[in-house]
Amino acid sequence: MAMPFFADNVPWWWLGGICGTLLVVMLSAVMMPFMSWGDKKQGKTQAKAGAKRKPSSGNRKDDSPGKLEDEPWFPEVEFRDWQDAVLMQGCPWSFDGCDSVEDLIKCIWRNPLHTGLQQAMTALISRTKNVRVARVHYRMTDETFYSVVYTLKSGAELFGGQPLEMAVGLELDEGISEPGLRRRNVGGDDARTQDDDTLGNGLCCLAPFYRIHDGFGCLLSSKHLAVLLANPGDTIQGSCYYVYPTRHMEPVQGAEHLVKFARVDKQCAAAADIREEHPHVVFSEHTGDLTEDDEPPMDFVADTICNIAGQKVVPDGMCYHAYGGGKFGGKDF
């Protein structure tokens, strides 16, 4: 009986209003999350736009990480063409009066007394198209090294270290300054004592070479030079020393009288007996095997420079080495 009373006493329009209200409430409950998400998205978009429009304050620099070059362990590296080497701080070479690459190389090599070195110099003159000077300063140790970088006509690069100021066995006239160097200690007992100490762990027979370059090698990239100067025994993608600088001359393990002075390949080094006045090359394998050879260390150094410069060195039937105009007519290999 309640339904008839309800139906008879409540207007139908009031029931329609109640149903409409319930429908609105239900739709609001469903749409509320989507409306809230839209507001958040719009807020983020406005925040990003505001950040882009934010003006910089005065001359304040952007907060950015420091450059790798600014790290104290990163070396300072400077390259200059030989014409501008005079502008390089502390450069050990003087190229005054040089008008060509040939003049420059002759100035650097300073008329070497050894026949093999003369041939090596000739090989460089005929194959070099440009020369640069490099300065590498290590801030952590406060050490500075200079190198000459020879760019060959083939595009390959060779490098030689700064000369050692020595006069052992060179028969230099006392008091006469040699061309090509800014500073030079020549003659006298003090100079000889200093030179003996310089090569105390090396071979005095190689002094004529080390007065030109303290080490010699090849570069596959100029970026490798700083690493090799700090670690002469390293090989970086083919870049390496082939004639070690004096600071890297090390005795052969188990044979302290043999000192390694050059690299043959990654498995072998060239050594010589420091007890002998006229030693010969001894090949020291990484396995510990030793092989004696009849070639003097200076000839080995000269041959090495000729070979990496692209001039093949071929021994003739008398075991003398032929350079340039020999059996193969001086062709490049």
Question: Which secondary structure elements does this structure contain, and how are they paired or packed?
Answer:
Elements: H1 2-9, H2 12-53, E1 76-81, H3 101-109, H4 115-127, E2 128-138, E3 143-152, E4 157-161, H5 189-198, H6 207-210, E5 216-219, H7 225-230, E6 240-243, E7 250-252, E8 255-265, E9 268-273, E10 282-285, E11 290-292, H8 297-308, E12 314-315, E13 321-322
Antiparallel strand pairs: 1-2, 2-3, 3-4, 4-5, 5-6, 7-8, 8-9, 9-10, 10-11, 12-13
Describe this structure in words.
The longest helix has 42 residues, at 12-53. The protein has helices at 2-9, 12-53, 101-109, 115-127, 189-198, 207-210, 225-230, 297-308; strands at 76-81, 128-138, 143-152, 157-161, 216-219, 240-243, 250-252, 255-265, 268-273, 282-285, 290-292, 314-315, 321-322. With 333 residues, the chain is α+β, with helices and mostly antiparallel strands. Mean pLDDT is 76; it is low at 1-7, 167-177, 183-198 and 316-333. The protein has a domain at 70-245 and 297-322.
Proportion of strand residues: 15-25%
Shape: globular
- Biggest sheet: strands, sense, closure? 6 strands, antiparallel
Helix- and strand-based class?
alpha+beta
Mean pLDDT: 76
Please give the count of helices: 8
Identify low-pLDDT runs. Answer: 1-7, 167-177, 183-198, 316-333
Order of helices and strands: HHEHHEEEHHEHEEEEEEHEE
- What percent of the residues sit in helical stretches (DSSP H or I)? 25-40%
How many individual β-strands?
13
* Terminal-residue CA separation: 120 Å
> If strands are numbered along the chain, what order do they take across the biggest sheet?
1-2-3-4-5-6
